[in-house]
Amino acid sequence: MKTALFIPIKLNNQRLPGKNLMNLNGRPLCDYIFKTALSLDSVDEKFVYCSDEAITQYIPQGIRFLKRDAYLDGGAVRGTEIIERFLRDVNADVYILTHVTQPFTKPQTIGNALGKVLNDGYDSAFSAVELQDYCWYRGKPLNYSPDNLVTTQNLEPVYMETGAFFIFRREVFETTGRRIGDKPYMHIVDQFERIDIDTAEDFALAEAAAAYLASKPEVKKQ
C-alpha cells in the first residue's frame, strides 16, 4: 500500500508574514516538520507542496519539491482544494497531511496513527487535544452542569482537532470530500505538539517551548 506525505507551504502568509521561514531557536520554522518527515521511514514518498521555488533551498534530501499553482496561496482557498489538487498530482493509497506551523509534532506520533490506518481497520486518523475543563458552546455549558460542579478531573473530556496531521485513505477523500472518514482514529497529542503558529504571540510561545525542549531532550522524546 503506497503512502505519500505532503507538507503544503505558502510564503505569502498574511497574519504573520514570512512565518514559515522565521528563525525558531536557531532553525527555520519549516525545518522542524521537515526533520520529522525524514524520520518516517515507513512513508514511501514525501513532498513539499509550494508555489514558490525559493523554498527549495530549505528542503533536505529525501523530501521532494512539488510545485503547485499559485492560486492555491489565496486567502480564500480552502484546505480541501489543496488536498484535491495534490491527489491529482500524486497517486497513493494513503496520504499524510502535516503542517509547518506545528513544529513540535513527533515522528512517533504520526507513525503510530499511520499504523492504525494501515493495519487496524481505520479509514483515517487525526490529531486532537483533550480538554478536561469547564467548556461552553453557544451560550450553554457543554460538558457540565452549573448546578452540580464536579472537579475538573471528573469532567467529561471534550476533544479539539489540531493541525498536526491528518491521515486518510484515498477513497475517503474521493467519496466524501473530507480528510476525516467515518471510522477515524483520534490520536491525543501533548501540549507541545498542539502549539500552532498563526500570530506573533503564537510564535513567542513556540520560541519559549523550543528553548525549553532544547534544554530538556528527555521531554522532547516522550
* Strand neighbour order, sheet with most strands: 5-4-1-6-10-7-11
Low-pLDDT runs of 5+ residues are none
Helical residue percent? 25-40%
CATH architecture: Alpha-Beta Complex
Count every helix, treating DSSP H or I runs of 4 or more residues as helices. Answer: 6
CATH homology-level superfamily? Spore Coat Polysaccharide Biosynthesis Protein SpsA, Chain A
**Nearest-angstrom radius of gyration?**
18 Å
Rough outline: globular
SSE topology string = EEEHEEHEHEEEEHEHH
CATH class: Alpha Beta
Ends apart, CA distance between termini: 29 Å
Query: Total domains, how many?
Result: 1
Quote the average pLDDT.
94
Structural class: alpha/beta
Label this structure with key terms.
222 residues, Spore Coat Polysaccharide Biosynthesis Protein SpsA, Chain A, two-stranded antiparallel ribbon, 6 helices, 28% helix, globular
Briefly say what this structure is.
With 222 residues, this protein is α/β, with parallel strands linked by helices.
Protein described:
This protein is α/β, with parallel strands linked by helices. The chain has a single domain, classed as Spore Coat Polysaccharide Biosynthesis Protein SpsA, Chain A, CATH 3.90.550.10. The protein is 28% helix and 24% strand. It is built from six helices and eleven strands. It has helices spanning 29-38, 79-89, 107-119, 170-176, 200-215, 217-221, and strands at 3-8, 23-24, 27-28, 45-50, 64-67, 94-98, 124-131, 136-137, 140-141, 158-169, 184-188. The strands form three sheets. It has a seven-stranded mixed beta sheet with strand order 5-4-1-6-10-7-11, with helices on both faces. The protein has a two-stranded antiparallel sheet with strand order 2-3. A hairpin with a 2-residue loop joins strand 2 and strand 3 (27-28). The mean pLDDT is 94.
